[in-house]
Amino acid sequence: MEFLPFTRPSVDESTIAAVGAVLRSGWLTTGPKCKELEAALSARAGGRPVRLVNSATAALEFALRIAGVGRGDEVITTSLSWVATANVILAVGATPVFVDIDPITRLIDLELIESAITSKTRAIIPVDLAGLPVDRDRLYEIAWSHGLRVIEDAAQSQGANWHGVEIGAAGDLVAMSFHPNKNMTTGEGGCLVMHDEAEAQLFEKLRLQGVTRDADGTYDCDLLGGKANLTDIGAAIGLGQLHHLDENNQRRAELAGLYFQRLALTDFILPPADFEQSNWHMFQVLLPQELASQRPVLIRLLKEASIGSGVHYPAIHTTSLYRQLGWRAGDLPHTESVAARILTLPLFPQMQDADVDRVCDALLIALKQLRS
User: Fold this and answer.
1) Predicted TM-score of the model (pTM)
2) Average pLDDT of span 345-365
C-alpha cells in the first residue's frame, strides 16, 4: 500500500511553469517575484508591510531585534513548540521564560503570563500550535498593560483568523513560516508583518548584512545583519501556493471534521473543534495517559501500515540545551504531559476521505494491540 505521510506539499503545474520562467529569466535571487509575493501577502494583512526571509526563524530573530530585545532581557513564551521559538531568544542574548500551557487548547496559558513578568521582561512570543490562534484579545490586554512587545509566532497559522480578522492583519510583529510542511510553502522561507516602513527598512537591512545600497552602486553597513533573503525561485512557488491557500485550508477543515467523526468515541483526546478560526495546519490527538510510554510503539505500528505520523513537539525546556540553562522536568506539568502524549496524524489537502478512514482504522487496531 502506498505510504501516506503526515503531510505533503502540493505544487501545481502552473507553479512549476512559473519557477521555470524564473530560471530562464536569469534573475534567481531576491527580485521582482519577491516584491510581488510581499505585495500579495501585505494585501491579506490589511496593507501592513510584509518582508520575506529564508525562514521563520530569521523572521522571529529579526523581530526581536526590531523590538529592541537583547542581552539581559527576558521573553515569555511556550515550551510546546519547535525549538526555534526559544532559540531565537537566546540568539539575541535574552533569556526565554517558559510558562505552562492550557491543557485543553495546548496553547500558552495566558493567565500564567502576568505572574512570570519581571522588570526584565520585554516581550511575549505566543505560538499558534497546529494553526489554532491564541486569544489575541487577552494576549494584547496583558501585553499593552505591561508595556510589552508581542512577536506572534504564527508559523503555523497562515490563513487562520481571530474573530474574523486574518492573522497578520492586526497586532504587533507577526512571523510566518513557508516551510514545506506548512499550509503554504516557498520551499523554505518565512516573512514578518510589521507596523510601518521604518520597521520594514530596518528588517531589509537585517536580512542582508546590515547593508544600505546607494544609487551609484556603493553601499554602507551600519549594523550587524545576517544573510536571510529569499530567492525569486522560492517566491514563485509561494505565489502559486498563496493562490490556493483558502481552498486548501477549507479542505483541511473538511478532513479534520472526518477525523472528529471517526475518533469521537475513542480513548484519544481530540483537539479543540474550532472550525471558524483555525487553519487546521495539523490534526493532533493525545494518547491516554497510561499509554504515553507506548507512543514509539504506536508510531511503529502505523508505519508498518504505511502511515506516517509525527511528534509536534517535544517540550523545549526538557531538551539538553535548556536543561543546561536550569530548566527541569516537572517545571511545566501540563506542557510535559501533552508533549509526552501528542501524536500528529496525516492531514494535507490532497488526502481523500478514504485516507482518513484508513488512518483511523490503523490507529484503532494499533491501540487495541497496545492494550492486549
Assistant:
1) 0.97
2) 98
